[in-house]
Amino acid sequence: MCHHKAYHQHWAQHAKHRRRHWENKFGRHGHGRGRRWGYPPVNIEEFDDHYEASVFAAGFYKSDFQVKIKDDLLIISASKAESEIVDNPGMKRQEFDPRGFKRIFELNEKIDKENITAAYEEGVLKIKLPKLAGTETYRKDIDIV
After folding, report:
1. Dist CA 18 CA 21 (whole Å)
2. N or C terminus of the chain: which is more exposed, having fewer CB within 10 Å?
3. Do 16 and 23 contact (CB within 8 A), yes or no?
4. What share of the chain has pLDDT > 90, as a percent?
5. What's the pLDDT at 73?
6. Rounded distance, CA 73 to CA 53, Å?
7. DSSP state of 115
8. Does pLDDT of 57 surpass 60?
9. Cα separations (Å) of 21 from 16, 17, 18, 25, 124?
Protein backbone atom coordinates (compact mmCIF):
# COMPACT_ATOMS: atom_id res chain seq x y z
CA MET A 1 0.00 0.00 0.00
CA CYS A 2 1.30 3.46 -0.87
CA HIS A 3 1.29 6.01 1.96
CA HIS A 4 2.05 8.83 -0.42
CA LYS A 5 -1.52 10.20 -0.43
CA ALA A 6 -1.88 9.98 3.35
CA TYR A 7 1.43 11.76 3.74
CA HIS A 8 0.22 14.68 1.62
CA GLN A 9 -3.10 14.93 3.46
CA HIS A 10 -1.29 14.96 6.77
CA TRP A 11 1.02 17.77 5.70
CA ALA A 12 -1.82 19.68 4.09
CA GLN A 13 -3.54 19.80 7.49
CA HIS A 14 -0.37 21.15 9.10
CA ALA A 15 0.08 23.71 6.35
CA LYS A 16 -3.49 24.93 6.85
CA HIS A 17 -2.90 25.27 10.59
CA ARG A 18 0.40 27.14 10.09
CA ARG A 19 -1.22 29.48 7.55
CA ARG A 20 -4.16 30.25 9.87
CA HIS A 21 -1.82 30.82 12.82
CA TRP A 22 0.45 33.07 10.73
CA GLU A 23 -2.43 35.16 9.39
CA ASN A 24 -3.77 35.71 12.91
CA LYS A 25 -0.37 36.89 14.12
CA PHE A 26 1.00 39.14 11.41
CA GLY A 27 -0.87 38.82 8.13
CA ARG A 28 -0.58 36.76 5.00
CA HIS A 29 2.82 36.57 3.42
CA GLY A 30 4.10 36.02 -0.03
CA HIS A 31 6.94 36.44 -2.42
CA GLY A 32 7.46 38.16 -5.70
CA ARG A 33 9.14 38.11 -9.10
CA GLY A 34 8.97 34.33 -9.49
CA ARG A 35 11.51 33.65 -6.77
CA ARG A 36 11.33 30.52 -4.68
CA TRP A 37 9.34 30.91 -1.49
CA GLY A 38 11.35 32.30 1.34
CA TYR A 39 14.15 34.19 -0.41
CA PRO A 40 15.65 35.87 1.41
CA PRO A 41 14.63 34.28 4.70
CA VAL A 42 12.55 36.46 7.01
CA ASN A 43 11.90 35.90 10.71
CA ILE A 44 8.92 37.65 12.29
CA GLU A 45 8.62 37.97 16.04
CA GLU A 46 5.67 39.30 18.01
CA PHE A 47 6.30 41.34 21.13
CA ASP A 48 3.72 42.89 23.44
CA ASP A 49 3.76 46.27 21.68
CA HIS A 50 5.21 45.53 18.21
CA TYR A 51 6.24 43.01 15.59
CA GLU A 52 9.78 42.80 14.28
CA ALA A 53 10.68 41.42 10.86
CA SER A 54 14.31 40.42 10.32
CA VAL A 55 15.28 40.05 6.66
CA PHE A 56 18.54 38.12 6.25
CA ALA A 57 20.06 39.81 3.20
CA ALA A 58 23.84 39.96 3.31
CA GLY A 59 25.73 41.51 0.43
CA PHE A 60 23.58 44.61 0.05
CA TYR A 61 24.08 48.23 1.02
CA LYS A 62 21.49 50.20 2.96
CA SER A 63 20.82 52.22 -0.21
CA ASP A 64 19.89 49.02 -2.13
CA PHE A 65 16.71 48.49 -0.04
CA GLN A 66 13.23 49.84 -0.53
CA VAL A 67 10.61 49.34 2.20
CA LYS A 68 7.13 50.56 1.27
CA ILE A 69 3.54 50.39 2.45
CA LYS A 70 0.83 50.11 -0.18
CA ASP A 71 -2.63 49.83 1.34
CA ASP A 72 -2.35 46.77 3.61
CA LEU A 73 0.86 45.46 2.07
CA LEU A 74 4.41 45.75 3.35
CA ILE A 75 6.74 45.54 0.34
CA ILE A 76 10.41 44.83 0.99
CA SER A 77 12.77 44.82 -1.97
CA ALA A 78 16.41 45.27 -2.82
CA SER A 79 18.18 45.72 -6.11
CA LYS A 80 21.69 46.39 -7.29
CA ALA A 81 22.73 48.57 -10.18
CA GLU A 82 23.75 46.51 -13.22
CA SER A 83 27.25 47.98 -12.96
CA GLU A 84 27.63 46.37 -9.49
CA ILE A 85 26.76 42.84 -10.66
CA VAL A 86 29.76 40.75 -11.68
CA ASP A 87 29.15 37.66 -13.82
CA ASN A 88 31.44 34.80 -12.90
CA PRO A 89 31.76 32.17 -15.65
CA GLY A 90 33.44 29.81 -13.17
CA MET A 91 30.40 29.75 -10.86
CA LYS A 92 29.27 26.14 -10.43
CA ARG A 93 26.41 26.71 -8.02
CA GLN A 94 24.74 29.99 -7.07
CA GLU A 95 22.17 30.03 -4.28
CA PHE A 96 22.67 33.68 -3.42
CA ASP A 97 21.33 36.04 -6.07
CA PRO A 98 23.11 39.40 -5.85
CA ARG A 99 20.65 41.04 -8.26
CA GLY A 100 17.91 41.54 -5.70
CA PHE A 101 14.60 40.32 -4.34
CA LYS A 102 11.07 41.36 -3.51
CA ARG A 103 8.96 40.11 -0.59
CA ILE A 104 5.37 41.14 0.09
CA PHE A 105 3.50 40.74 3.38
CA GLU A 106 -0.14 41.51 4.12
CA LEU A 107 -0.42 43.53 7.32
CA ASN A 108 -3.12 42.95 9.90
CA GLU A 109 -5.29 45.63 11.46
CA LYS A 110 -3.14 45.83 14.63
CA ILE A 111 -0.19 47.53 12.95
CA ASP A 112 0.42 51.28 13.23
CA LYS A 113 1.45 51.93 9.61
CA GLU A 114 2.52 55.51 10.29
CA ASN A 115 5.31 54.56 12.71
CA ILE A 116 7.09 51.66 11.00
CA THR A 117 10.88 51.96 11.12
CA ALA A 118 13.74 50.03 9.48
CA ALA A 119 17.49 49.66 10.03
CA TYR A 120 20.14 47.61 8.19
CA GLU A 121 23.14 46.32 10.10
CA GLU A 122 25.52 43.39 9.62
CA GLY A 123 23.51 41.84 6.78
CA VAL A 124 20.13 41.96 8.52
CA LEU A 125 17.35 44.42 7.69
CA LYS A 126 15.20 44.87 10.81
CA ILE A 127 11.74 46.35 10.39
CA LYS A 128 9.86 47.37 13.53
CA LEU A 129 6.09 47.39 13.13
CA PRO A 130 4.47 48.96 16.21
CA LYS A 131 0.98 47.91 17.27
CA LEU A 132 -1.81 50.43 17.52
CA ALA A 133 -2.79 51.58 21.00
CA GLY A 134 -5.25 49.15 22.53
CA THR A 135 -4.03 46.14 20.52
CA GLU A 136 -1.01 45.35 22.67
CA THR A 137 -0.74 41.85 24.08
CA TYR A 138 -2.58 41.59 27.39
CA ARG A 139 -0.81 39.55 30.05
CA LYS A 140 -1.83 38.70 33.59
CA ASP A 141 -0.59 36.10 36.03
CA ILE A 142 -3.41 34.12 37.62
CA ASP A 143 -3.02 33.08 41.23
CA ILE A 144 -3.63 29.43 41.93
CA VAL A 145 -5.61 28.83 45.11
Report:
1. 5
2. C
3. no
4. 52
5. 96
6. 14
7. G
8. yes
9. 9, 6, 5, 6, 25
- The residue among 34 and 140 whose pLDDT is bigger is 140
Residue 98's region, left for phi above 0, alpha for psi from -120 to 50, else beta, is alpha
pLDDT of residue 132: 96
Q: pTM of the full predicted structure? A: 0.67
Q: Are 101 and 78 in contact (CB under 8 A)?
A: yes
Would you say residue 145 lies in a domain? no
Closest among 40, 48, 76 to 137, alpha carbons compared: 48
20 found inside a domain: yes
Full residue range of the structural domain in which residue 30 is found: 4-86+95-130
DSSP code of residue 111? B
> What pLDDT, on the 0 to 100 scale, is given for residue 90?
84
